[in-house]
Amino acid sequence: MEKLIITAAICGAEVTKNHNPAVPYTVEEIAREAKMAHDAGAAIIHLHVREDDGTPTQSAARFKACMDAIKAVCPDVIVQPSTGGAVGMSNEERLQPITLDPEMATLDCGTCNFGGDDIFVNTENTIIEFAQKMFERGIKPECEVFDKGMIDMTIRLNKKGYIPSPLHFNFVMGVNGGITGTVRDLLFMKESIPQGSTFTVSGVGRCQLEMATTAILLGGHVRVGFEDNVYLKKGVLLKSNAEMVERIVEIAKLLGREIATPSEARQILGINKK
Ligand code: KMH
Ligand code: ZN
Asked: DSSP for 15-29?
């Protein structure tokens, strides 16, 4: 089997220090968490950024400060900024980090309830606009799909030429409003993507370990991190993102999957951006 790419979603936009005091806000905290996660085995850092008080922002200047600080301590790691930002942000706001020409960025491929009155809005035109702008800059999209219908949307836009092949998906499972994080649903998602695609799995909340382990067995890749889950196990908060990355590395080794370095991850995903 292909080596395992581990992505660490170190910060997120919705999770706060009230959920877990180790959630990073400042540039220094973000760089420290990224380095520890990378040292533990993460090849990709999925990045949201915050103001020092924890307010989510998509400011290009703040992304640049954080990306520079991450690259200063782990030069080889792939930094994958979010273009999802936080619920309620405008498209213009959300797109700012792509002006920094990262190797990869997320491309959210559908609209989803996000708990309470929150709706994460991604109309078809939004997806097309984001995909085109990323394509123009040679940025590899990670297609975030929160439900099976979003896979179908991604395939439709791929056939129309808006999202290039090979497709790389992130199955975000267990969001309150998206597909549940069960083995049955993960098999359904995996069987729904085109041959030659790659996929990673983000199990949100308590389904994380089961989804990660199943992804490893199925030849997929894994995302963990505070964005998706702040607990090591029931009632025990994680001390860092790295602690969960270490756990995934242990499971992968037991199951016979080697861990991909960032350059191996670039090869697997077809990233060759200068
Ligand atoms: N914070 C969510 C509303 C992404 O990074 O592209 C969107 C999100 C997806 O986290
Ligand atoms: Zn995100």
From this structure: --TTT-TT---SHHH
